[in-house]
Give the backbone structure.
Amino acid sequence: MFGRTCISIVCVGRQKMTKLRMKDMNIDDKTINLSTEEAKTCGKSVKTDTEDEAIKAKLNAVYRLRLLYNSGEELWKHIGKAGSGNNSFGRVGGKDAFLRKAVYHELEREWEDEMGISLDRLIDAYGLVERLMERYKFLLGDVEDRDVRTECCEQIVNVCVFDDEITEGEPTKKRELLLRLQEEDAYCLAVFLLMLLGALPLSVETRQGDAKQMKQQYESVYNFFLRVCHRNILFVQTPRMTLFHKVLKETEEKLTRIRLVKLTADILCNLSVLASAEQVAETGRRYQWDQLFPNLDGYWIGEHHSEQKPDYWRVEELATSYLFCHYFQKEGEDGKLHQQEFTISFYRNEEDYACVQHPRSVLQWLNNDKLSKDDITYPHFVFFGGDSPTKIAFESFMMDVSWFRPMQLTRAKDDWMPPTEKGMEVVNDFEDYSYTFYLGLEAITPDFIYVKDENGKSYKVSVSEHEELRNCTLNDAIGIITWAGKRYIAFDHLMLYLPIDS
C-alpha cells in the first residue's frame, strides 16, 4: 500500500445524506479519487431503494383495488404464491427487489397483451383522479346520492366528449373542474366517471376487499352510456357499445375492474369520434389503416340459393365502402326477383366488425337526423381466402336487425350467370331510398373546395363557413348526391351534406 485510506459512507433516513472521508491514492504517478466512485455507489443504492418503494406501492395498489382479479386470492394464485393482507402483496419477493420488480412488469406485460391497457397509466390516472375527487368533492354530491352523481357524469361527458360549452352560470370551482378534465386523457376521464358512478373504489388506499356484484356494476355503466348515446350522437348503436353489451353476457369472473376501465375509455374515444365532424375527418384517415378493402367485386351465392329459388348477392367496391345488392325470390313469385341494396364497411380494430347501413339511413344523413338503431347493425365478419376471399361469414353481434341476418356467402364461379341475365323481372324493394353518388372533387384551395357534377357544372363551398373542410384531402369521398329529385354537395367522410339550390 502507498498510504492509508479510510472510507466512511453514511446514508441517513430519507435525506440519503452521504459522508465521505478519504485520502487520495497514488498508483504509478496517477491519482484516483475514490470519493467520486463511492458517491456513485451510494447514489445507485438510493435510486434502487426509491424504485423498489415505487414498485411496492404499485403492487399494493393493484391488490387493494382488485384491478386484475375480483379477489385477492386469485391474484396471489396467479403469481404462484399464497398470501393475504392489503400491504403484503407489495412485499412479494421479500428482500429480493429484482423479483418484486419482475412480478410487477410481468403483470403489466400480460394485461397490455390481453387488453391493450397499461397498468402504469391506469395507476397514475387513479392517483390523479383521487386528488381531483378530494379537491372537488363538495361539487360532486354525496356518495349515496346517485342521481346527483349521474347528472354530474352526464355533464362531464357533454363537455369533455361532445364539446358542449361551459355555461357562464356554472360556479367557478365547477368550471375549474370541467376545464381540468377537458385536458386529461381517456383513462383519467374513465376512472373519474367510474368513481362517480360507484363502479370503482374512491381511493388507492381502499379497504373494501374483494370486488362484488360486478355484473350489476357493468350493467349500470352500460345503461349510463346508453342514455348518453340516445341524447347526443347520430348513432344510437356504436361499435364499442355493441362490444360492451356482448361482454355483459360473460361470467362474473371475467368482469374485472381493469376491463371496465378499458371498455369505458374505448367508449369515450368512440363517442368523441362520432360526435364531431372535425374529429371524424381527422380520425377517418388515420383509421383507414384499420378499414379493410379486400377484393370482393362480383357475384356471391347465398346459403339457400337454388335454381328453383335464387338467392345471391352482387358486390361492388365504392370509394369508401362496398355496395351489397341482394337478389332473392319470394315463395310463389315465379319469374320475379326482389332487389335490396346495403352499404357495408369492414373494420379491423381488436375485433373484426362490419358496419351495415340500410338505404333508409341516407334520409337521416341528408336531414341531419339521428341514425336510428333500426337502420344500422354491426355484425362480426370472417373472410376465408386472404385478400381475394372465396367465402364471407357474417355472424351475430348484438341487436340484430330483421333486414340483415347472419349468413355465409360463397363466391360464384367466373362463368356463373345470374338469373337477371335470363330476363327475370326485378323489383327494387327500396326504390324510395335509392340515390346516386357522383364523385366529383375538382380542386381544394385555402378558401374554397370545388366540386363538379356529372354534367360538368362546378360548385364551390366556402371553407370559412365550414371549418371542418380545412382537413379535406383529394382522397376523401366528395361529390354530388341525388335523391328524390334533390341534390346535395356531399362530404361523405364528414357526414356533411349541403343542399344545392335549384
